[in-house]
Amino acid sequence: MQDTALLIVDVQNDFCPDGALPVPEGDQVVPVLNRVAQKVAQAGGLVFASRDWHPPTTRHFAAYGGKWPIHCVQNTPGAQFHPDLKLPEGTMVISKGTSENDDGYSAFEGRTEQGKTLLEILRERGIRRLIVGGLATDYCVRASALDALKHGFEVIVLTDAVRGVDVQPGDSERALQEMQAAGATLTTSDAL
């Protein structure tokens, strides 16, 4: 699995039940992703965890002209990863949506603390296959998977490790179909 990486997208408190922008059943992805992360890490693959890391004032928020309630503000409890998410040692954190003018839907827009992009690291490490799970199916998972495909990676979306917002009923199902049509493989964690 040295040419494989797992991307855990935005499994943060604000996107889980009782958060500022809760994804229905968002916390249910945690045990699935814990199992997959352990499996990938033990097999020598890389694990990435992306996070929304918004400044207090950003056009992403409805209060400043955007579409979303205030969520995942840098260094707040809501921006922390879900407390039950077990990230293996060596997991690389990708922070996105960090400027006042940045929505940050795709993990490919983010950077590590060292300033590297996800794409730079994937290319440096010879990664060809990206397994994707997390929140939310119809926004950040979708954007990250589509960007990975555009960059030429093989993409596997774990249908049992994603949940969606469904602002419009059926958004998540449409997002899965769009990812599949673009070339992603949809499967479950058990089938990996």
CATH top level assignment: Alpha Beta
**What's the architecture in CATH terms?**
3-Layer(aba) Sandwich
**Spatial shape:** globular
- The helix count comes to 4
Largest sheet properties: 6 strands, parallel
Looking at CATH, the homologous superfamily is Isochorismatase-like
Low-pLDDT runs of 5+ residues are none
Q: Return the structural class.
A: alpha/beta
What this model shows, in words?
With 192 residues, the chain is an alpha/beta fold. It has a single domain, classed as Isochorismatase-like (Rossmann fold, 3-Layer(aba) Sandwich). The protein has four helices and six strands. Helix 3 runs parallel beside helix 4. The longest helix has 14 residues. 45% of the residues are buried.
In short:
With 192 residues, the chain is α/β, with parallel strands linked by helices.
Q: What secondary-structure arrangement, pairings included, does this model have?
A:
Blueprint (H helix, E strand, L loop, with lengths): L3 E6 L19 H14 L3 E7 L39 E5 L21 H7 L4 E7 L1 H14 L3 E10 L7 H11 L3 E3 L5
Parallel strand pairs: 1-2, 1-4, 2-3, 4-5, 5-6
Helix pairs in contact: 3-4
